[in-house]
Amino acid sequence: MQDSGLGLSVSNYDWMQQMDKSSEAQAWATGKRAKRRSRLSSAELRDKVLDTALEMLQETGLTVSLAHLKMEELIRIADVPRSSVYREWETAEEFYVALMERMLEPAEDQGVAFDEETIRIALAVIEEHRDELGTVDGRRRVLMEAIRQGVARNFEAVSRALAWRTFTTLNSTLPALEEEHRERIQAALVAADEHFINRMAAFYESVISYFGLQFKPGFDVYKFTATASSVVEGLIGRSFVNPTLVNTPVSGPGIKGESAPWHLAAVGWLGILDAMTEPTPEHGEPGDE
User: Fold this and answer.
1) In Å, what is the CA distance from 8 to each residue of 186, 188, 210, 235?
2) C-alpha count within 13 angstroms, C-beta hemisphere, residue 89
3) How far is the C-alpha of 129 from the C-alpha of 133, rounded, in Å?
4) Across the strands, what pairs with 279?
5) Backbone dihedral angles phi then psi of residue 274, each to the nearest 5 degrees
6) Three-state secondary structure string covering the chain
7) Which residue, 269, 276, 272, is CA-closest to 217?
8) Over the stretch 215-240, which tens digit does the pLDDT of each residue have?
9) What b/e string do you get for 94-105 counting C-beta neighbours within 10 Å, with b at 16 or more?
10) pLDDT score for 283
11) Residues 6+ apart with CB under 8 A from 285
12) Is pLDDT larger for residue 7 or for residue 176?
């Protein structure tokens, strides 16, 4: 069987040998058997086991190998029958693929690179400097300040996010998976990415319109969201290799024209915005007043 690179091959993880039958046999002989659990449906069993596995992975996220996840400990914590677990997933690969799919399921309030605090910071900047929004130049300064602060926050939040680490790890393992499993994980990756894109696109569209901008022909909010987020995520990946280069701020304009520190991710994000948008006719270019 092909090894996926995540420790999924049955040859290096003997699924059935994890069953500790000696303790069950001893309990039968002594008559000290545990109280029978209520029967779980297949869906209830899957939810209970997979949710428990997710909780066990919360601290470290998805590592290079999933073989460190001990099934006996998982079954004990989930409090489900051993036999039911091994009937539901006959091999380790089947279980791990189901677990990876569950790890990629987007929660309503989350996403691959979604961070609520980033949005709060951007909106707070806009609110704080509302008196600047009456002119084209003022709107530009406020927009740049919201980008400067918001993207810097987003970079830090996403670099620590379990959802993002999981997404990037699974994405990198796709070529090594068997075709059947690859199709399932790829579908889960697409669903997670679309959830994030749609969530952020709705926010960006309202902000871009608020600042009197529109997309140039050939561009739209979805292309912008995909490109801008790729800049942030790409720099996060590079920061693991060359943190000094990525995390050393550059000097740029602050809200009052003073010199202020800009993260490279914010510089790139602003460049993409400027490349893909233009002022609406009724708002005009900065300096037109």
Assistant:
1) 17, 18, 49, 30
2) 23
3) 7
4) 213
5) -65, -35
6) CCCCCCCCCHHHCCCHHHCCHHHHHHHHHHCCCCCCCCCCCHHHHHHHHHHHHHHHHCCCCCCCCCCCCCHHHHHHHHCCCHHHHHHHCCCHHHHHHHHHHHHHCCCCCCCCCCCHHHHHHHHHHHHHCHHHCCCHHHHHHHHHHHHHHHHHHHHHHHHHCHHHHHHHHHHHHHHHCCHHHHHHHHHHHHHHHHHHHHHHHHHHHHHHHHCCEEECCCCCHHHHHHHHHHHHHHHHHHHHHCHHHHHCCEEEECCCCCEEEECHHHHHHHHHHHHHEEECCCCCCCCCC
7) 276
8) 999 999 999 999 999 999 999 999 99
9) ebbbbbbbbbbe
10) 64
11) 136, 279
12) 176
Tokens read off for 2: 């092909």
Residue given tokens 């979604």 in the structure block: 114
- What would the two tokens of residue 105 be? 């399921």
Residue recorded with tokens 């084209």? 136
Residue type, 44: E
Cβ-contact 3, 84 below 8 angstroms: no
pLDDT in tens, 136-151: 999 999 999 999 999 9
Q: Which residues, in sequence order, are bridge partners of residue 105? A: none
Tokens matching residue 3? 């090894």
> Which residue's structure tokens are 């049955």?
10
Whether this prediction's pTM lies above 0.85 is answered by no
What does the block give as tokens for 232?
Answer: 């942030």
Six token digits for residue 145: 């300040």
139-167 in b/e burial notation, b at 16+ Cβ within 10 A?
Answer: bbbbbbbbbbbbbbbbbbbbbebbbbbbb
